[in-house]
Write a structure and sequence with these properties.
The protein is mainly beta and 377 residues long. It has three helices and 21 strands. The longest helix is centred in the first third of the chain and has 16 residues. It binds (2R,3S,4R,5S)-2-(hydroxymethyl)piperidine-3,4,5-triol.
Amino acid sequence: MKRILLVLTVLLAKSLLLSQAVTYNNFYPGKIWKDNNGVAINAHGGGFLYFEGTYYWFGEHKIAGPAGNRAMVGVHVYSSKDLYNWNDRGIALHVSDDPNSEIVKGCVIERPKVVYNKKTNKFVMWFHLELKGKGYSAARAAVATADNVTGPYIYLRSYRPNAYKWPVNATASDTMEAAGGDSTLLKLPGEERAEAGYFLRRDYPKGQMARDLTIFQDGDKAFLIYSSEENYTMNIAELSEDYTSFTGKWCRLLIGGHNEAPAMFKYEGKYYLITSGCTGWAPNAARSAVAASILGPWKSLGNPCVGPDNALTFHSQSTYVLKVQGKKNAFIFIADRWHPQNPIDGRYIWLPIQFNNEGKIVIKWKDEWNLNFFNKN
Ligand code: DGJ
Protein backbone atom coordinates (compact mmCIF):
# COMPACT_ATOMS: atom_id res chain seq x y z
CA MET A 1 0.00 0.00 0.00
CA LYS A 2 2.79 2.38 1.03
CA ARG A 3 4.61 1.58 -2.21
CA ILE A 4 1.51 2.30 -4.33
CA LEU A 5 1.01 5.60 -2.52
CA LEU A 6 4.64 6.53 -3.12
CA VAL A 7 4.39 5.72 -6.85
CA LEU A 8 1.16 7.72 -7.12
CA THR A 9 2.71 10.70 -5.31
CA VAL A 10 5.74 10.63 -7.61
CA LEU A 11 3.52 10.41 -10.70
CA LEU A 12 1.35 13.31 -9.52
CA ALA A 13 4.40 15.45 -8.68
CA LYS A 14 5.87 14.68 -12.12
CA SER A 15 2.70 15.59 -13.97
CA LEU A 16 2.49 18.85 -12.03
CA LEU A 17 6.13 19.71 -12.61
CA LEU A 18 6.41 18.69 -16.23
CA SER A 19 5.00 21.15 -18.71
CA GLN A 20 2.10 19.90 -20.75
CA ALA A 21 2.09 20.20 -24.51
CA VAL A 22 -1.23 21.50 -25.86
CA THR A 23 -2.74 21.43 -29.35
CA TYR A 24 -4.39 24.70 -30.25
CA ASN A 25 -7.14 25.36 -32.79
CA ASN A 26 -7.74 28.96 -31.74
CA PHE A 27 -5.91 32.09 -30.64
CA TYR A 28 -6.45 33.11 -27.00
CA PRO A 29 -5.12 36.68 -26.74
CA GLY A 30 -3.41 37.40 -23.44
CA LYS A 31 -3.41 33.77 -22.24
CA ILE A 32 -0.23 31.70 -21.74
CA TRP A 33 0.67 30.22 -25.14
CA LYS A 34 2.70 27.01 -25.00
CA ASP A 35 5.12 25.63 -27.56
CA ASN A 36 5.49 21.99 -28.66
CA ASN A 37 7.35 21.22 -25.42
CA GLY A 38 4.62 22.67 -23.25
CA VAL A 39 6.77 25.69 -22.39
CA ALA A 40 5.38 29.25 -22.69
CA ILE A 41 6.53 30.83 -25.97
CA ASN A 42 9.38 33.24 -25.24
CA ALA A 43 9.56 35.56 -28.27
CA HIS A 44 8.59 39.10 -27.32
CA GLY A 45 8.58 42.16 -29.59
CA GLY A 46 8.22 39.55 -32.32
CA GLY A 47 8.89 39.56 -36.03
CA PHE A 48 7.53 36.98 -38.49
CA LEU A 49 8.70 35.47 -41.73
CA TYR A 50 6.85 33.11 -44.04
CA PHE A 51 9.36 30.98 -45.88
CA GLU A 52 8.78 27.87 -48.00
CA GLY A 53 5.44 26.96 -46.46
CA THR A 54 6.35 27.65 -42.83
CA TYR A 55 5.90 30.65 -40.56
CA TYR A 56 8.81 31.66 -38.32
CA TRP A 57 8.38 33.74 -35.19
CA PHE A 58 11.49 35.57 -33.94
CA GLY A 59 11.43 37.44 -30.66
CA GLU A 60 13.26 38.69 -27.62
CA HIS A 61 14.06 35.85 -25.23
CA LYS A 62 13.26 37.30 -21.80
CA ILE A 63 14.25 35.94 -18.42
CA ALA A 64 12.43 36.06 -15.08
CA GLY A 65 12.78 39.03 -12.74
CA PRO A 66 13.20 42.76 -13.27
CA ALA A 67 16.54 42.29 -15.12
CA GLY A 68 14.74 40.14 -17.68
CA ASN A 69 14.41 42.90 -20.25
CA ARG A 70 18.16 42.85 -20.84
CA ALA A 71 19.43 40.40 -23.46
CA MET A 72 20.86 37.50 -21.45
CA VAL A 73 20.25 34.82 -24.09
CA GLY A 74 19.42 36.33 -27.49
CA VAL A 75 16.69 36.05 -30.11
CA HIS A 76 14.44 32.98 -29.90
CA VAL A 77 12.85 31.42 -32.98
CA TYR A 78 9.79 29.18 -33.34
CA SER A 79 8.16 27.67 -36.43
CA SER A 80 4.58 26.80 -37.31
CA LYS A 81 2.51 25.59 -40.24
CA ASP A 82 -0.84 26.75 -38.91
CA LEU A 83 -0.06 29.82 -36.72
CA TYR A 84 -1.65 28.20 -33.67
CA ASN A 85 0.95 25.56 -32.78
CA TRP A 86 4.61 26.59 -32.54
CA ASN A 87 7.75 24.44 -32.42
CA ASP A 88 10.73 25.67 -30.46
CA ARG A 89 13.64 26.02 -32.93
CA GLY A 90 16.12 27.38 -30.41
CA ILE A 91 18.14 30.57 -30.23
CA ALA A 92 18.62 32.19 -33.65
CA LEU A 93 21.01 34.92 -32.48
CA HIS A 94 23.06 34.37 -29.34
CA VAL A 95 24.36 37.19 -27.17
CA SER A 96 28.13 37.18 -26.90
CA ASP A 97 30.41 36.46 -23.94
CA ASP A 98 33.04 38.79 -25.38
CA PRO A 99 32.99 42.05 -23.38
CA ASN A 100 34.11 43.90 -26.52
CA SER A 101 31.15 42.72 -28.58
CA GLU A 102 28.28 45.17 -29.13
CA ILE A 103 25.91 42.31 -28.36
CA VAL A 104 27.59 41.21 -25.14
CA LYS A 105 25.26 39.55 -22.61
CA GLY A 106 23.43 42.30 -20.71
CA CYS A 107 22.96 44.62 -23.69
CA VAL A 108 19.42 45.39 -24.91
CA ILE A 109 18.12 43.60 -28.01
CA GLU A 110 14.57 44.54 -28.94
CA ARG A 111 12.02 43.88 -31.68
CA PRO A 112 14.02 41.53 -33.95
CA LYS A 113 12.62 41.30 -37.50
CA VAL A 114 13.82 38.98 -40.26
CA VAL A 115 13.55 39.16 -44.05
CA TYR A 116 14.87 36.86 -46.74
CA ASN A 117 17.05 38.31 -49.48
CA LYS A 118 16.62 36.38 -52.74
CA LYS A 119 19.76 37.82 -54.38
CA THR A 120 22.17 36.91 -51.60
CA ASN A 121 20.18 33.89 -50.39
CA LYS A 122 20.66 35.18 -46.84
CA PHE A 123 18.25 35.76 -44.00
CA VAL A 124 18.70 39.26 -42.63
CA MET A 125 17.77 40.15 -39.06
CA TRP A 126 17.43 43.75 -37.85
CA PHE A 127 16.87 44.73 -34.25
CA HIS A 128 17.05 47.69 -31.91
CA LEU A 129 20.33 47.59 -30.00
CA GLU A 130 21.30 49.40 -26.83
CA LEU A 131 24.84 48.97 -25.58
CA LYS A 132 25.41 47.32 -22.20
CA GLY A 133 25.27 49.73 -19.29
CA LYS A 134 24.33 52.74 -21.43
CA GLY A 135 20.57 52.81 -20.85
CA TYR A 136 18.76 53.73 -24.06
CA SER A 137 21.32 56.29 -25.23
CA ALA A 138 22.98 54.34 -28.06
CA ALA A 139 19.72 54.20 -30.09
CA ARG A 140 21.08 51.97 -32.85
CA ALA A 141 19.66 49.68 -35.52
CA ALA A 142 21.72 46.49 -35.71
CA VAL A 143 21.94 43.78 -38.36
CA ALA A 144 22.88 40.09 -38.45
CA THR A 145 22.65 37.52 -41.26
CA ALA A 146 22.29 33.75 -41.55
CA ASP A 147 22.37 31.08 -44.24
CA ASN A 148 19.53 29.17 -42.60
CA VAL A 149 16.27 30.71 -41.48
CA THR A 150 16.59 29.51 -37.88
CA GLY A 151 20.21 30.66 -37.69
CA PRO A 152 22.82 30.87 -36.37
CA TYR A 153 22.66 34.60 -37.19
CA ILE A 154 26.08 36.22 -37.34
CA TYR A 155 26.22 39.74 -36.00
CA LEU A 156 27.48 42.28 -38.55
CA ARG A 157 27.24 45.83 -37.19
CA SER A 158 25.00 48.60 -35.82
CA TYR A 159 24.04 51.97 -37.24
CA ARG A 160 22.78 55.38 -36.52
CA PRO A 161 21.26 55.50 -40.03
CA ASN A 162 21.75 58.01 -42.81
CA ALA A 163 24.63 60.20 -41.63
CA TYR A 164 25.11 63.19 -43.99
CA LYS A 165 21.88 62.40 -45.86
CA TRP A 166 18.85 64.66 -45.79
CA PRO A 167 15.45 62.96 -46.00
CA VAL A 168 13.54 63.08 -49.30
CA ASN A 169 10.91 65.28 -47.65
CA ALA A 170 13.34 67.77 -46.06
CA THR A 171 12.20 71.36 -46.42
CA ALA A 172 14.63 74.23 -47.02
CA SER A 173 14.28 75.32 -43.39
CA ASP A 174 14.89 71.76 -42.14
CA THR A 175 18.42 71.95 -43.48
CA MET A 176 19.25 75.38 -42.04
CA GLU A 177 19.96 76.41 -38.48
CA ALA A 178 17.26 78.45 -36.76
CA ALA A 179 17.69 82.23 -36.76
CA GLY A 180 20.06 83.00 -33.89
CA GLY A 181 21.34 79.40 -33.85
CA ASP A 182 19.75 76.06 -32.95
CA SER A 183 20.54 76.56 -29.27
CA THR A 184 17.64 79.05 -29.20
CA LEU A 185 15.31 76.08 -29.86
CA LEU A 186 16.35 74.33 -26.66
CA LYS A 187 13.64 76.13 -24.70
CA LEU A 188 10.92 74.60 -26.89
CA PRO A 189 9.12 71.36 -26.00
CA GLY A 190 10.49 68.30 -27.78
CA GLU A 191 7.56 68.10 -30.22
CA GLU A 192 8.21 71.64 -31.43
CA ARG A 193 11.95 71.09 -31.61
CA ALA A 194 11.27 68.07 -33.83
CA GLU A 195 9.01 70.18 -36.06
CA ALA A 196 11.71 72.85 -36.27
CA GLY A 197 14.21 70.22 -37.50
CA TYR A 198 16.38 70.53 -34.40
CA PHE A 199 17.09 66.78 -33.92
CA LEU A 200 17.37 66.17 -37.65
CA ARG A 201 20.16 68.76 -37.95
CA ARG A 202 21.78 67.77 -34.65
CA ASP A 203 22.15 64.15 -35.80
CA TYR A 204 22.89 64.87 -39.48
CA PRO A 205 26.67 64.30 -39.11
CA LYS A 206 26.49 61.21 -36.88
CA GLY A 207 23.35 59.55 -38.23
CA GLN A 208 19.79 59.56 -36.94
CA MET A 209 18.73 57.77 -33.76
CA ALA A 210 17.01 54.39 -34.21
CA ARG A 211 15.04 52.74 -31.40
CA ASP A 212 11.79 50.72 -31.84
CA LEU A 213 11.87 49.32 -35.34
CA THR A 214 10.35 47.04 -37.91
CA ILE A 215 11.15 46.00 -41.49
CA PHE A 216 8.78 46.02 -44.41
CA GLN A 217 9.59 44.09 -47.57
CA ASP A 218 7.97 45.52 -50.69
CA GLY A 219 8.77 43.39 -53.74
CA ASP A 220 12.56 43.15 -53.88
CA LYS A 221 13.02 46.27 -51.76
CA ALA A 222 13.05 46.42 -48.00
CA PHE A 223 12.62 49.36 -45.67
CA LEU A 224 13.52 49.93 -42.03
CA ILE A 225 10.92 51.87 -40.07
CA TYR A 226 12.17 53.22 -36.74
CA SER A 227 11.56 55.71 -33.96
CA SER A 228 14.07 58.50 -34.24
CA GLU A 229 14.78 62.01 -32.90
CA GLU A 230 14.50 61.01 -29.19
CA ASN A 231 11.33 59.12 -30.23
CA TYR A 232 9.63 62.29 -31.45
CA THR A 233 9.68 61.37 -35.16
CA MET A 234 9.48 58.17 -37.18
CA ASN A 235 11.83 57.48 -40.10
CA ILE A 236 11.46 55.12 -43.03
CA ALA A 237 14.78 54.25 -44.69
CA GLU A 238 15.34 52.19 -47.82
CA LEU A 239 17.76 49.30 -47.29
CA SER A 240 20.58 48.46 -49.69
CA GLU A 241 20.16 45.63 -52.24
CA ASP A 242 21.51 43.07 -49.75
CA TYR A 243 19.36 44.56 -46.95
CA THR A 244 22.34 45.03 -44.60
CA SER A 245 22.88 48.78 -45.01
CA PHE A 246 21.09 51.90 -46.26
CA THR A 247 20.76 53.49 -49.71
CA GLY A 248 20.52 57.00 -48.22
CA LYS A 249 16.94 57.41 -49.45
CA TRP A 250 14.69 58.04 -46.46
CA CYS A 251 11.82 60.10 -45.14
CA ARG A 252 10.57 61.55 -41.85
CA LEU A 253 6.96 61.01 -40.87
CA LEU A 254 4.63 61.80 -37.99
CA ILE A 255 7.10 64.56 -37.14
CA GLY A 256 6.91 65.50 -33.44
CA GLY A 257 4.17 62.86 -33.01
CA HIS A 258 6.04 60.79 -30.40
CA ASN A 259 5.49 57.32 -31.86
CA GLU A 260 7.09 53.96 -31.29
CA ALA A 261 6.31 50.24 -31.81
CA PRO A 262 5.87 50.45 -35.62
CA ALA A 263 4.12 47.66 -37.54
CA MET A 264 3.54 48.00 -41.29
CA PHE A 265 1.51 46.18 -43.93
CA LYS A 266 0.14 46.76 -47.42
CA TYR A 267 -3.55 46.48 -48.20
CA GLU A 268 -5.09 47.18 -51.61
CA GLY A 269 -1.96 48.97 -52.80
CA LYS A 270 -1.71 51.29 -49.78
CA TYR A 271 0.78 51.20 -46.94
CA TYR A 272 -0.59 51.11 -43.40
CA LEU A 273 1.38 51.79 -40.27
CA ILE A 274 0.31 51.06 -36.71
CA THR A 275 2.28 52.65 -33.87
CA SER A 276 1.92 53.43 -30.18
CA GLY A 277 2.63 56.50 -28.12
CA CYS A 278 5.70 56.57 -25.87
CA THR A 279 5.01 55.54 -22.27
CA GLY A 280 7.79 53.03 -21.61
CA TRP A 281 6.43 49.55 -20.85
CA ALA A 282 2.99 50.90 -19.93
CA PRO A 283 0.29 50.65 -22.59
CA ASN A 284 -1.27 53.65 -24.33
CA ALA A 285 -3.59 54.22 -27.28
CA ALA A 286 -2.44 52.86 -30.63
CA ARG A 287 -2.30 55.11 -33.67
CA SER A 288 -2.50 54.35 -37.39
CA ALA A 289 -1.52 56.04 -40.63
CA VAL A 290 -1.81 55.42 -44.37
CA ALA A 291 0.20 56.37 -47.47
CA ALA A 292 -0.01 55.69 -51.20
CA SER A 293 3.77 55.61 -51.41
CA ILE A 294 6.00 54.20 -48.69
CA LEU A 295 8.17 57.34 -48.49
CA GLY A 296 5.05 59.42 -47.96
CA PRO A 297 3.21 61.65 -47.56
CA TRP A 298 1.61 59.83 -44.61
CA LYS A 299 -1.82 60.64 -43.26
CA SER A 300 -2.84 59.88 -39.66
CA LEU A 301 -5.96 57.75 -39.22
CA GLY A 302 -6.24 57.75 -35.43
CA ASN A 303 -6.68 54.90 -32.97
CA PRO A 304 -7.58 51.68 -34.83
CA CYS A 305 -8.72 49.92 -31.64
CA VAL A 306 -12.43 49.90 -30.91
CA GLY A 307 -14.39 48.93 -27.79
CA PRO A 308 -13.49 48.55 -24.10
CA ASP A 309 -9.85 49.22 -23.29
CA ASN A 310 -9.21 50.66 -26.75
CA ALA A 311 -7.42 53.62 -25.11
CA LEU A 312 -4.81 51.14 -23.84
CA THR A 313 -4.64 48.96 -26.96
CA PHE A 314 -6.21 46.19 -24.84
CA HIS A 315 -3.24 46.54 -22.45
CA SER A 316 -0.65 45.93 -25.14
CA GLN A 317 1.70 47.57 -27.64
CA SER A 318 2.00 46.82 -31.36
CA THR A 319 4.91 44.82 -32.72
CA TYR A 320 3.93 43.33 -36.09
CA VAL A 321 1.17 42.87 -38.62
CA LEU A 322 1.21 39.36 -40.05
CA LYS A 323 -0.23 38.63 -43.47
CA VAL A 324 -1.97 35.25 -43.42
CA GLN A 325 -1.00 33.17 -46.44
CA GLY A 326 -3.66 31.75 -48.72
CA LYS A 327 -6.38 34.11 -47.56
CA LYS A 328 -7.37 37.38 -49.15
CA ASN A 329 -6.88 40.54 -47.10
CA ALA A 330 -6.21 38.57 -43.93
CA PHE A 331 -3.94 40.44 -41.51
CA ILE A 332 -3.27 39.80 -37.83
CA PHE A 333 -2.41 42.60 -35.44
CA ILE A 334 0.30 41.32 -33.09
CA ALA A 335 1.13 43.13 -29.88
CA ASP A 336 2.93 42.58 -26.59
CA ARG A 337 1.39 42.79 -23.17
CA TRP A 338 4.60 43.62 -21.31
CA HIS A 339 5.26 42.49 -17.74
CA PRO A 340 8.30 44.61 -16.85
CA GLN A 341 8.63 43.19 -13.31
CA ASN A 342 8.79 39.67 -14.71
CA PRO A 343 9.38 40.07 -18.46
CA ILE A 344 9.34 36.33 -19.23
CA ASP A 345 5.63 36.41 -18.36
CA GLY A 346 4.83 38.97 -21.06
CA ARG A 347 1.82 37.88 -23.14
CA TYR A 348 0.90 38.04 -26.80
CA ILE A 349 -2.16 39.75 -28.20
CA TRP A 350 -3.19 38.54 -31.66
CA LEU A 351 -6.32 40.09 -33.14
CA PRO A 352 -7.78 40.17 -36.66
CA ILE A 353 -7.56 43.43 -38.61
CA GLN A 354 -10.72 44.73 -40.23
CA PHE A 355 -11.29 47.75 -42.45
CA ASN A 356 -14.23 50.13 -42.33
CA ASN A 357 -15.90 51.87 -45.30
CA GLU A 358 -13.53 54.83 -45.03
CA GLY A 359 -10.51 52.54 -45.44
CA LYS A 360 -9.58 52.85 -41.76
CA ILE A 361 -8.15 49.96 -39.76
CA VAL A 362 -10.41 48.50 -37.10
CA ILE A 363 -9.17 46.19 -34.32
CA LYS A 364 -11.61 44.67 -31.83
CA TRP A 365 -10.94 42.55 -28.78
CA LYS A 366 -11.69 38.83 -28.89
CA ASP A 367 -11.20 36.34 -26.03
CA GLU A 368 -10.87 33.55 -28.55
CA TRP A 369 -10.87 33.38 -32.35
CA ASN A 370 -9.42 31.50 -35.29
CA LEU A 371 -8.54 32.00 -38.95
CA ASN A 372 -12.10 31.17 -40.08
CA PHE A 373 -12.84 34.75 -39.03
CA PHE A 374 -11.30 35.83 -42.34
CA ASN A 375 -13.67 33.63 -44.38
CA LYS A 376 -16.54 35.89 -43.33
CA ASN A 377 -14.93 38.98 -44.84
C1 DGJ B 1 8.59 50.68 -25.29
C2 DGJ B 1 9.20 50.00 -26.46
O1 DGJ B 1 8.24 49.81 -27.42
C3 DGJ B 1 9.83 48.70 -26.02
O2 DGJ B 1 10.31 48.00 -27.12
C4 DGJ B 1 10.89 49.09 -25.07
O3 DGJ B 1 11.86 49.84 -25.73
C5 DGJ B 1 10.33 49.89 -23.91
N1 DGJ B 1 9.61 51.04 -24.40
C6 DGJ B 1 11.39 50.34 -22.96
O4 DGJ B 1 10.86 51.17 -21.97
